[in-house]
Amino acid sequence: MMKNIKLALPSLKDARMRKNKTIPTVRYTVEHTYKNLGQNKTYAIFTYGCQGNEADSEVMAGILEEIGYTKSEDPMSADVVILNTCAIRENAEQRIWGVLGQLKGKKRENPNMLIGIAGCMPQEENATNKILESYGFIDLVIGTHNKNHLPQLLYEAYRSKAKVVEVISSEGEILEDAPKVRESNHKAWVNIMYGCDEFCTYCIVPYTRGRERSRAKEDIINEVKDLVSSGYIEITLLGQNVNAYGKDLGEGYTFGDLLYDLDKTGIQRIRYTTSHPRDLDEKTMQAMRDCKSVMPQLHLPVQSGDDEVLKRMNRKYTYEEYMSKVKRLRELVPDISLTTDIIVGFPNETRQQFENTLKLVQDAKFEGAYTFIYSKREGTPAANMPDDITDEEKHKRLEELNVYINAGYLEGHKRFLNQIVEVLVDGPSKNGDGMMCGYTPHLKLTHFKCSDLSLVGKIVKVKVTEAKTWFMIGELCE
Length: 478
Ligand code: SAH
Ligand code: SF4
Ligand code: F3S
Known about the structure:
By secondary structure, this protein is of the alpha/beta class. The protein folds into 3 domains: 4-166, Rossmann fold, CATH 3.40.50; 174-395, pyruvate-formate lyase- activating enzyme (Alpha-Beta Horseshoe); 420-476, CATH 2.40.50.140. Helices cover 33% and strands 22% of the residues. It has 13 helices and 22 strands. The protein has helices spanning 12-16, 51-66, 90-109, 125-134, 150-160, 205-209, 217-229, 255-263, 282-290, 307-312, 319-332, 351-364, 391-414; strands spanning 4-8, 25-27, 42-47, 70-71, 80-85, 114-119, 140-142, 163-166, 174-176, 187-191, 193-194, 213-214, 234-238, 269-273, 297-299, 337-344, 369-373, 420-428, 435-439, 445-449, 459-467, 472-476. The strands form 6 sheets. The protein has a 7-stranded parallel beta sheet, with helices on both faces. It has a 5-stranded mixed β-barrel with strand order 18-19-20-22-21. It has a 3-stranded parallel beta sheet with strand order 10-13-14, with helices on both faces. Iron/sulfur cluster (SF4) binds next to helix 6. FE3-S4 cluster binds at residues 49-50, 52-53, 86-88, 119-120, 204-205, 208-209.
């Protein structure tokens, strides 16, 4: 049996706390001892969950490469394999337990492989307890707050040959100056804030990610300026509730102000996610109208169209309030493409309440949505709410909802038929049929016949010839 070194264990009780204290900013440095830890060793990171996790994986990759590791060509056989996990729903976790099962086999073939689990799952008491009790082959357990400790934790795991666990359930810090290996050379994630203070009753994120905390605007603006000078075309600003940006800094500088300032950096395309409907303010909406670089597209999760359910979810807005934001957005940015997130089967959601959601979907004319069946998360308030709705009924509602959502996707593509759109080229299409693909300003995936790899990372003009549910097809103009 492997020894355990428990440097810190998760505590939901601590994770729930919000003390009124200043958030420390930590500037990344690495101790000399660890500088060559990864020499002649390879690494692989598997990322699950949201864009926040993708951005975190880019930081972990940066840290690993800085201490000598190289990216493995064969991820399942790397010397260090890290799973950057998500805890948002039960099925997200099931997938991860499945991958861990596969890795167990790989480790039998290569006992020197070091397996780490990072991200949101270890922040849950239950998950970490399960790892401690039944997953002897995992060497490193690290949460969302201590990526910067990766070098010393790896060092400790090699030295001790024990399972090293450090999961911190504090409100969190802000990490600056950490190295990053970005996935793309033309599109970049830019964190503007971390954590969440909303405490929607179904959601685990405020517990796994800590307190809402904003990066200093200078740090964000400088990062974007650097991206522009390295040739980046598009940025996506990240936060669980970007519209709360700056509130914790108390300087009166808001998300809208940040959009206006970032527009001046020369970056060509700005997107942001996620927006909370209650906090989406007039200035932000005006910035969407005024700033050429801010793309005419918004993901605005509504979760439900029923006021009583919204109240029990602690979303702090009503159907009417949501729709009035939608109306205002369309006044300011008439061709805006709106997408959303919806949960069906929230505890004891009635048929009528579900139908109110269907009504809102039609009213709001969404052009896409992530739709989910409610999943119970231990430690959240909704986990204690009575629920008499059967699984079968929940699945039926999801299917019914998706008929409307998929029609919205199709409509959203149809409106560009025969128009010329600007596509930022990502690369060859996945099905390998001589097509390339990329996204339009409205975030519509577009495929077009082309084999000129020099166009990757460039914006090209494409005439849309076909509108499908999940994408558009077009012809390259130039
Ligand atoms: N901060 C973002 C979203 C974070 S999670 C926001 O507030 O919009 C992404 C989506 O997962 C949520 O919008 C919600 O629709 C869904 N989700 C979160 N917790 C869930 C749960 N317990 N069960 C089902 N879906 C959930
Ligand atoms: Fe979760 Fe709500 Fe925070 Fe989004 S705003 S991360 S749904 S608690
Ligand atoms: Fe998942 Fe954590 Fe993101 S729970 S959705 S990876 S914040």
